[in-house]
């Protein structure tokens, strides 16, 4: 069977194009060798389970440890602590008989059914005494457990660790989406805790999986070239990394879309145009990976971080550092060199997800703003938007959670609806920038827009200077500055205006007040 790009479930080297996951987390071996307990957290579909399976297989093959991976997600809906503990024991016993030699099997859990509240602790101790090798246990999806069951599991693991050198498992990894400090979100306020700020204060390290590097993306795609002869042009590979920033699922999903749908004939090379087509298909299709990101946007702690990025404003002073770390751990943002959306594909997905209902309600069509020569009449389009915004924005913004970024998003959805199928939109967001930049590509033309909220009399002069630099950087001579005035004391007659200015280098800057 020919291997393929995997986008669902753990990678299997014999079936999928594959990069050794341990190279993205080189320190994990030393933690196991020192018999430490640690946390591994990373966003969805970045290779966590693939790493665990690969690592357990290698450890078992080397013969020094007994390693077992247990996925505890099946206990997500379990609220009964006793039943949950016993179900976990049964899972450990069952899985051990599947992957381990008989001498290393976990014991029959029946004797521990009489004391279910400490059954996990006692069971793991008994297995450690019985097993001829040190036991390494990986608990995958640990943050799917909730309330009393989560507390019970963590407390028993801490009990066993703290009692060492009494027999207990040698090394443990708690694996999930979030760092251990965020497990508190799974515990209701009225529930008991572990008596510390962290629900698992015995961890030695908290690790995360990095994305692929550009060279690793090339290496992964080269496996397809070696297997089929199909070549990725160097410019296409560069664009793939630029769009994904090495996010593993995106890297594989783009590749699969290209080689199976866009360019199924292996004799045809893959070009940047094919990459762009695959990108748009992924965004429109909203696969589970992208859909799960959109679901996260509803959370208040996510909104507190994402909204200032979309609006280009500064972070509110009451935004907690924990919120920032939480959103980063979800994979939605990057924090260096500055706070921004994690990659250009997410930059497209997030505003579209927030405004999907709005887009369905907009009836404007691109043909209304197309000249006879096929070019886009951006001035006419923005004049129409001024009228549209004055008529509809108040009702829409009242129902919209992202209030500050709302005007920017309404313009973007208006553009998206009009541009749909005739061109594409690129967005740039960064917290504290004071703006959002938009590049509309239509036919062979580019239209450069900058969106700002009115802050003071300096807003328009600053916007003209910023937009002029953006226009110059793109090699264009014309730009469009849209300034949203949210002041309640101003009438629509005062807010709506159109001006033309010359930029510092002679650029033609159109200013639209909204």
UniProtKB/TrEMBL annotation:
Domain AAA+ ATPase stretches: 34-363
Keyword ATP-binding applies: yes
Pfam families associated with the record: AAA_35
InterPro entries noted in UniProt: AAA+_ATPase (IPR003593), P-loop_NTPase (IPR027417)
GO molecular function: ATP binding
Gene3D superfamilies found in the cross-reference section: P-loop containing nucleotide triphosphate hydrolases
Keywords, sorted A to Z: ATP-binding, Nucleotide-binding
Protein origin, superkingdom: Bacteria
Protein known as: ATP-binding protein
């Amino acid at each position: 069977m020919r291997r393929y790009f995997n986008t669902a479930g753990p990678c299997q080297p014999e079936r999928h194009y594959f990069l050794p996951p341990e190279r993205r987390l080189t320190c994990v071996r030393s933690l196991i060798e020192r018999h430490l307990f640690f946390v591994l957290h990373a966003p969805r579909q970045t290779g966590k389970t693939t790493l665990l399976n690969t690592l357990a297989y290698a450890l078992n093959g080397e013969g020094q440890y007994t390693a077992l991976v247990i996925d505890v997600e099946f206990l997500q809906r379990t609220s009964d602590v006793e039943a949950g503990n016993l179900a976990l024991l049964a899972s450990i016993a069952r899985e051990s008989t599947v992957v381990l030699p008989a001498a290393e099997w976990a014991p029959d859990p029946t004797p521990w059914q009489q004391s279910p509240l400490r059954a996990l602790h006692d069971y793991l101790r008994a297995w450690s005494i019985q097993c001829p090798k040190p036991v390494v246990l990986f608990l995958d999806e640990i943050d799917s457990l909730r309330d009393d069951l989560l507390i019970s599991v963590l407390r028993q693991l801490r009990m066993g660790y703290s009692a060492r050198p009494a027999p207990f498992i040698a090394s443990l990894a708690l694996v999930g989406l979030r760092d251990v400090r965020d497990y508190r979100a799974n515990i209701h306020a009225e529930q008991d805790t572990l008596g510390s700020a962290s629900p698992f204060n015995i961890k030695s390290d908290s690790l995360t999986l990095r994305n692929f590097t550009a060279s690793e993306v090339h290496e992964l795609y080269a496996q397809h070239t070696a297997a089929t002869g199909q070549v990725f042009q160097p410019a296409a590979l560069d664009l793939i990394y630029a769009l994904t920033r090495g996010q593993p699922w995106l890297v594989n999903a783009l590749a699969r879309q290209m080689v199976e749908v866009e360019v199924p004939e292996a004799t045809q090379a893959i070009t940047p145009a094919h990459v762009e087509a695959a990108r748009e298909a992924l965004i429109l299709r909203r696969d589970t990976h992208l859909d799960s990101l959109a679901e996260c946007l509803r959370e208040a702690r996510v909104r507190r971080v994402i909204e200032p990025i979309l609006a280009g404003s500064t972070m509110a002073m009451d935004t907690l550092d924990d919120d920032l770390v939480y959103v980063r751990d979800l994979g939605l943002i990057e924090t260096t060199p500055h706070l921004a959306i994690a990659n250009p594909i997410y930059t497209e997905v997030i505003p579209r997800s927030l405004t999907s209902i709005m887009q369905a309600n907009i009836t404007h069509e691109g043909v209304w703003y197309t000249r006879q020569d096929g070019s886009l009449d951006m001035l006419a389009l923005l004049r129409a938007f001024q009228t549209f915004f004055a008529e509809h924005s108040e009702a829409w913004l009242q129902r919209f959670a992202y209030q500050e970024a709302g005007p920017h998003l309404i313009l973007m959805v208006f553009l998206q609806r009009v541009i749909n199928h005739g061109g594409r939109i690129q967005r740039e967001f960064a917290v504290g920038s004071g703006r959002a930049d938009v590049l509309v590509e239509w036919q062979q033309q580019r239209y450069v827009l900058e969106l700002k909220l009115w802050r003071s009399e300096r807003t328009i002069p600053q916007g003209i200077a910023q937009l002029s630099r953006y226009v110059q950087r793109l090699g264009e001579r014309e730009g469009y500055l849209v300034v949203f005035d949210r002041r309640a004391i101003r009438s629509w007659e005062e807010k709506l205006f159109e001006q033309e200015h010359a930029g510092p280098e002679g650029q033609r800057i159109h200013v639209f007040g909204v």
